[in-house]
Model the fold of this input.
Amino acid sequence: MSKVKNLTSILCLVLVLVFSFQSIACKGKEAEEDQPKAVEENINRETLKPILGEAIENSSGLVDVTGDIEEIIISYRYYDADGENYDEGLVQDLASKIEKLYKTFKKLDRVVFQVSVNDPATSEQWKPYVTFTINREVVEKIEWSNILAEDFFKNVIDTRWFD
Done:
């Protein structure tokens, strides 16, 4: 009986160890799955086009992007048909896109926007308009719905206007 009891104890110990190792392996796999996929943080022209749109003829959108996850520089064209109120129109165009950009790329911090606008006098001419930097801290403090241009440009960093 003693041998059977010892054998049963050993068998129970082995089973406990097997289940423990399985549990640890499963938790490790779950942790890997919870991590953001590398492709989500791969910021390039193709991953940004669905968020920012693509500048084609008479449409606002992304022209180019450089940099890495710590800071990216986005060349962006804003098209305004009448060319009268660039500031308000630009902010209305970009606000939801910036919010979505930061929700999509969780590790993204600094973004420099270099914005060109159309010249109403010549339909295919684009001129530099404004450059500004935004970071995650600014994004988190801005109330994005119905933001006014004045409030937007007060909160962004290193705003530089062109003539």
